[in-house]
Amino acid sequence: MIPVLEIFGPTIQGEGMVVGRKTMFVRTAGCDYRCTWCDSAFTWDGSAKEDIRQLSVEDVWHELKQAGGENFDHVTISGGNPALLRHLGDLIDLLHNNGCQVALETQGSVWQDWFLNIDDLTISPKPPSSGMETDFSKLDDILSKVEEADRTTTHTSLKVVVFDKADFAYAEHVHQRYPQVPFYVQVGNPDPLTDEQTNLVSGLLDDYEALVDRVVASSAMNNVRVLPQLHVLIWGNKRGV
Amino acid sequence: MIPVLEIFGPTIQGEGMVVGRKTMFVRTAGCDYRCTWCDSAFTWDGSAKEDIRQLSVEDVWHELKQAGGENFDHVTISGGNPALLRHLGDLIDLLHNNGCQVALETQGSVWQDWFLNIDDLTISPKPPSSGMETDFSKLDDILSKVEEADRTTTHTSLKVVVFDKADFAYAEHVHQRYPQVPFYVQVGNPDPLTDEQTNLVSGLLDDYEALVDRVVASSAMNNVRVLPQLHVLIWGNKRGV
Ligand code: SF4
Ligand code: SF4
């Protein structure tokens, strides 16, 4: 059984290595981190406890088909930290057997063997502003397993969210530690609870421009991609889109 | 010699298959099309005639280094239609020899053998609203050459700009004709001359949401990516950024 909080779509992936990709979302409950600026804190802070359902992989597929019909061939599994779920491999197999590609994002604190079956795997270690500390030996281990399976340049990416100077230095460090892994830097959502869409968008675009400027000025950050969160630009902080 | 209109950067690629990628830009002069909504009409309408310089490939590299220093490893060649320039292959070789990856966008009206040396090749056939007509036998020819060289899924993409319903039907047609080629749909810039940044951004985001809705509703458009133009969201219609 998989603890599921949300199943929705089709929509687009708003960030990272397959930004813009038409996809469905499955959001799992539970996280081993407590990032200060977590934009899905409801997955772990108890506030949506009564919405968590224990679903079989067949149930998940049934609900995906119900929501998406014939209009999807890609599913994004997000959290929380879906890497906490050992049995997610069964869902990934079922999705593949039904002609879907699968994307997943995790902070890189836990390895699962089914990482090697994910088509678009985003490892997103958390910068200092999150209040979390990165276990680099764990991250080394994950990325060397991906490398051994020859999936570094095709199915994997690193993504770091940047809020401030210290975060940017952290991003440079991560990129230099794993230069062969496609690298994404992303602006953070400064206010994941506001419903003031106009201010949110103009603030995000200002932050995005500032991050572009930082990347442009850094010779340690050449082979990188800098992205905003497209879904926030369109829908603000609304859930389920 | 290469007819060059602009050399600038580092900045980010605002659209297409390497959206967000830190890059330099080289803009060449001349186009065989006359799209109604062309956002770089100055490359062919005579209005920037006195800015066109005939540069050797060494000159182009020298100016790139002068502008970018050590802060780049990727160069985007845009136009106009750079595919009109038979000798661009020399520039691509020089860039590769200096450790740069090379991206190029063209509408797909002309083949050049050096297409097979481009790391990120975007073929962007023009939809009905452009006023241009696509020569599909030419497009078939280009994409089969790319396929023969086994570069379809790794180094190539198709991109169609969508302004209206007819454009969307055209995009569906192109995607179905070449289903194996990574496919991008993009909102057009409704007003490539305005300097009213705020209205431009909110209009673009509305158009982007509408395009996402169209893609979501179409089962012919599952394996696609829908993107806005990030540089327009940040900088509006300003040139040289
Ligand atoms: S790792 Fe992700 S889900 Fe977990 S607390 Fe941090 S931002 Fe939230
Ligand atoms: S093909 Fe491109 S450069 Fe040429 S007229 Fe059309 S939009 Fe402008």
Automatic annotation (TrEMBL), chains A, B:
Binding site for Mg(2+): 40
Cofactor note: Binds 1 S-adenosyl-L-methionine per subunit.
Gene Ontology process terms (BP): tRNA queuosine(34) biosynthetic process
Chain residues that bind S-adenosyl-L-methionine: 37-39, 80, 124-126
Residue numbers binding [4Fe-4S] cluster: 31, 35, 38
Needed cofactors: S-adenosyl-L-methionine; [4Fe-4S] cluster; Mg(2+)
Residues annotated to bind substrate: 12-14, 27, 78
Keyword Iron-sulfur appears in the UniProt entry: yes
Enzyme class: lyase
Catalytic reaction annotation: 6-carboxy-5,6,7,8-tetrahydropterin + H(+) = 7-carboxy-7-carbaguanine + NH4(+)
Pathway membership, UniProt: Purine metabolism; 7-cyano-7-deazaguanine biosynthesis
Keywords: 4Fe-4S, Iron, Iron-sulfur, Lyase, Magnesium, Metal-binding, Queuosine biosynthesis, S-adenosyl-L-methionine
Domain of life: Bacteria
Assigned EC number: 4.3.99.3
Ranges where the Radical SAM core domain occurs: 18-237
Claim: S-adenosyl-L-methionine is one of the keywords in the record: yes
InterPro entries in UniProt: 7-CO-7-deazaguanine_synth-like, Aldolase_TIM, Deazaguanine_synth, rSAM, rSAM_sf
A molecular function GO annotation: S-adenosyl-L-methionine binding
Gene3D superfamilies documented for this protein: Aldolase class I
Subunit structure: Homodimer.
Sequence similarity: Belongs to the radical SAM superfamily. 7-carboxy-7-deazaguanine synthase family.
HAMAP family: QueE
UniProt cross-references to PANTHER family, sorted A to Z: 7-CARBOXY-7-DEAZAGUANINE SYNTHASE (PTHR42836)
Function: Catalyzes the complex heterocyclic radical-mediated conversion of 6-carboxy-5,6,7,8-tetrahydropterin (CPH4) to 7-carboxy-7-deazaguanine (CDG), a step common to the biosynthetic pathways of all 7-deazapurine-containing compounds.
Protein's recorded name: 7-carboxy-7-deazaguanine synthase
Organism of provenance: Aureibacillus halotolerans
